[in-house]
Amino acid sequence: MSESKYREWILDTIDSLRSRKARPDLERICRMVRRRHGSEPDRTCAELEKLIQEQTVLKVNYKGSISYRNAAKVQRRSRKKDDGTLTTAARRSAVEEASHSDLSNGDSAFGPVDQDEEDLEADTSMAMDTDSNADEEGADESRDGQDGPSPGSTYEDAPVPCATVRAAVSAPCSPSGTRPRPGPGCSPGSGLDCVSFQKAGERPSSLPPSSPRALTHNDWAYHSAVCPAERQHPGMQRDKAVTKPAILSVTTSPGPLKNNVKKEDAGGKVEDNGLTSDQLVPDYAAGLEETKNVPDGRPQTLSLPSDNCTFKNKIEISSFTAAEDSLLNGGKGDEISVKKEKMSQNLLQWTVADVASYFSAAGFPEQAVAFRTQEIDGKSLLLMQRSDVLTGLSIRLGPALKIYERHVKVLQRTHFLEYEDL
DNA sequence: AACTGCGCACCAT
DNA sequence: ATGGTGCGCAGTT
């Protein structure tokens, strides 16, 4: 219950700061939320993390510092102009495209990437990664059950990652000095630090190695969504030991699939990059760290066995979707089918949060909100019909069509096929 | 002291 | 050229 409230508060705050031409950074967001609603910075920070994970809020690195964006707005803006001019059809795609790109771009670069389906897929997969992170979120919010690792504090996790990152980078967080102080309440030296230090700009170099989605341009940008590692970050502390696994899982998702499907591009790095957002920043430096753990930085193909997390399933699903497309082009199906299996089974267990995260990750953060609002969980998703998606969610036709055709339908088909087989 | 408004330079497209 | 972003500073609460 408080979650939605926080979502509102935070998005509102971000909008507010933006309109004031002030950078919507952690400190300001926390402060404003506290002032307006009396919420403690720590809590705000934690909630913000969740929003980032579900991509309701995008964390980006802009001009050397971290900023937070209202995902919904970012999307729209990106091609407003075009919209007006284009035909309905065109508009539609434009919008969609925009959303995708936005997701990845996060920042000022709401890229007008109109590539096409391929991009979509790519984005999707990328996004998925994000989801994977959501680990905690899934557990916490939806609390499927078993997994909830620990009642722990979500927010605590954030700090850790940062610290990690910091270490990796070697530069302490405060360097820039631009920012007076880390965050209001969000654990001192925690997420904020990471951020600030990252902005320093050195990060880029460190990323390259293994980070799947190495950032390519601008600043190094990574984003929770983007970085697989992220999920770790949430639970990093406790998972520390499991760090690798997490990574793996990540890999499992989009990256791997892709790799599997198209091994051609050796490295796979290329693909990732494409998707990559310019400035999305993953809070969790964990990602980096993880990356580091893996010496060769090669895409770890192992699939993570852990089935405990719901995310994983999610990820796979998404991957699957993407993979499916890839298949068309001639990929290998074995792996996919396996994933498919997992995914379909899990679909029934998806919670409302899982569904929302899925669509956010798939490049439809704005529409994901609608799914959440309508309380669509995995079971409901299976029952959705075309008209439900197109008109029942009150979302724009363009995204709705794509969501139905590329995601809902695919998920349903996969799910039911599985059952038939069984 | 904290908050707000905004001109203007930056940056990406 | 266009448009988003946010620094830095002045005004307001």
Description of the molecule:
The protein contains 24 helices and 2 strands. The protein is an all-alpha fold. Among the domains are: 3-82, Winged helix-like DNA-binding domain superfamily/Winged helix DNA-binding domain (Arc Repressor Mutant, subunit A, Orthogonal Bundle), CATH 1.10.10; 347-418, Transcription Factor, Ets-1 (DNA polymerase, domain 1, Orthogonal Bundle), CATH 1.10.150. Strands 1-2 form a two-stranded antiparallel sheet. Helix 6 (88-105) packs across helix 24 (397-421), helix 7 (117-133) packs across helix 20 (352-361) and helix 10 (159-169) packs parallel to helix 11 (191-199). It is elongated. The chain binds a DNA duplex (13 and 13 nucleotides) through residues 17-24, 31-32, 35, 62-63, 65, 67, 74, 77-78, 80-81, 107-112, 218, 278.
Taking the sheet with the most strands, its summary is:
2 strands, antiparallel
Distance between the termini: 38 Å
Give the count of helical stretches: 24
Helix content: 55-70%
* Low-confidence parts: 76-342
**CATH fold descriptor of the domain at 3-82:** Arc Repressor Mutant, subunit A
The CATH architecture of the domain at 3-82 comes to: Orthogonal Bundle
CATH superfamily of the domain at 3-82: Winged helix-like DNA-binding domain superfamily/Winged helix DNA-binding domain
- If you compute it from the alpha carbons, what radius of gyration comes out, rounded to the nearest whole angstrom? 19 Å
Overall average pLDDT: 53
Overall number of strands: 2
Structural category? mainly alpha
- SSE string: HHHEEHHHHHHHHHHHHHHHHHHHHH
Tell me, briefly, the overall form.
Answer: elongated
What's the CATH class label of the domain at 3-82?
A: Mainly Alpha
Approximately how much beta-strand content do the residues carry?
under 5%
Strand line-up across the major sheet: 1-2
Keywords: Chromatin regulator, Nucleus, Phosphoprotein
Subcellular location: Nucleus
Region (Disordered): 72-158, 250-277
Biased composition (Basic and acidic residues): 261-272
